[in-house]
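Ops channel
N.P.: pipeline sanity check, posting one input/output pair.
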């Protein structure tokens, strides 16, 4: 009851109560697919490692260094875009990291200099880190509070499993 009107205040609508069980399952499905695609992209450079090294006339270790920088950048991107999402909202942040990744990917297709290639992969890594954050935030916010820990296992596990498979 409110003190002024004597009426019951309406129940707060949360993200978890706004979704039906079917919608929550769809969100889980797309979160898992998104995490798999992002983790595949993060590890994609390990497959054409020798070809990349030959194209840029560098060692395999130099390309591995780019992969490492991209991975570190994805951690930084998760922090950066998480902070931006808290300050400016998830939609605007989603558009920003998607645009950033798209530009880095297109530019990456035309690069002939190893330094610029490294920079484009670091920028792509930042954007991928933002994607991981939004994927898990979207999923966690749409789930009921009681099983949220259990429900976050599938996307997390799928990311770990896909990472293991892509590096072996």
């Amino acid at each position: 009851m409110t003190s002024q009107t004597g009426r019951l205040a309406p129940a707060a609508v949360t993200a978890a109560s706004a979704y039906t069980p079917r919608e929550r399952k769809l969100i889980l499905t797309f979160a898992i697919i998104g995490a798999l695609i992002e983790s595949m992209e993060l590890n994609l450079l390990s497959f054409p490692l020798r070809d990349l090294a030959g194209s840029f006339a560098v060692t395999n270790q130099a390309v591995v260094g780019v992969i490492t920088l991209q991975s570190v950048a994805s951690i930084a991107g998760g922090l950066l875009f998480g902070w931006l999402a808290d300050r400016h909202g998830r939609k605007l942040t989603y558009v920003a990291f998607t645009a950033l990744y798209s530009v880095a990917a297109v530019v990456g297709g035309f690069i002939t200099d190893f330094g610029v290639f490294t920079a484009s992969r670091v920028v792509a890594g930042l954007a991928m880190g933002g994607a991981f954050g939004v994927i898990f935030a979207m999923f966690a916010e749409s789930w009921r509070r009681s099983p949220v820990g259990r429900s976050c296992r599938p996307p997390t596990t799928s990311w770990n499993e896909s990472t293991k498979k892509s590096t072996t």
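N.P.: looks fine end to end. The mean pLDDT is 77.
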